[in-house]
Design a protein that fits this description.
- A 6-stranded parallel beta sheet has the order 2-1-3-4-5-6.
- Helix 2 packs across helix 3.
- Helix content is 45%, strand content 15%.
- Helix 12 links the parallel strand 11 and strand 12.
- It has 341 residues and is an alpha/beta fold.
- The longest helix is centred in the C-terminal third of the chain and has 18 residues.
- The protein has 2 domains: 161 residues, Glycogen Phosphorylase B (Rossmann fold); 162 residues, Rossmann fold.
Amino acid sequence: MKIFTAIMKYDYGDEKRGFSFEYYNVYLPLCDVYGKDNVLLFDYFSEFRNIGKEKMNRRLLEIIKAEKPDASIFCLLWEDQFDEEVVSSLRSYTRTVIYFFDDPWRQKFVRHWINYFDFFTTPDYYMFKQYELEGLKNVIYSPFGYNSSIYKKLDLEKTLDVTFVGGCSPLRKWIVRSLEKEGIKVKVFGRGWGSAGKWISQEEMVEVFNRSKINLNLSNAIYSNIKFLIWSLHSLESVKQLILLRKNKEQVKGRHYEINASGGFQLSYFIPGLNMAYEIDKEIAVYESVENIVPIVKFFLKAEDLRNTIAESGYVRSVRDHSAQSYLNKTVDQVLKDKRN
């Protein structure tokens, strides 16, 4: 079995930022399942930047022709690095799959690229059903899951009250400040938080999930709360970020699986489809609006036994159902089953 992966190896193509999400959660899990020697990595963005679009696409075609992998998985986060004719021609040598992360809010991009691949994936259950209703037969439901070699339960002492790991956005900053005004200590980690938060490694992030009494999973989409909108007008930077924000729809993300798989208690924004992954109030806690997040956090800081019960149930469910290794194995199996038939 030979698998080809075309991914952006480094986070947003910047080596200084470390490895990308798809490196950790697509390439490495595939290596766990099929063996590192059987998974080829093509860092398309570095190739694009170093030798240009035409040469990168030519090199891509040469590798596929030479290796003839059983399946080729493309993780496309950007828009114009690949040549449509070259990508379409790859289907003569391998079964091709375009692996989407954000298709619910990138539909124009998605509808264009699915024409050039044998299969395409979605991590969103309701988008999967929408594609099926449209009669698309080559869609595969493949949730994010979590890399079981990275995210683990460490049984560390809960030394942090409330934490959030992720980039800063106007809405997230407003939520954190709202909690802090109520005397709730919130430790933030990620880019854009200034001196309040630092970027941490994968290992450190797993420790944070394990050490936190409450792990927040905060939306970064535009929110119509009038208090937030009024607050955001006091900052030109916040207004700019809201204007430039392309995301207009939320979805279940990798973080939902990662926190639970580390044995952490998670308080997340509610999004349709989350209930398909975890049982609400038994395996994950949610807030439905930012207006009620403060009392919910205060409640769970006191309700230690309930908090621990939910965290343990979420962990058990993750181990049973949600590893990235399992989801990717199923995706490849579906592609090759179609080939055999």
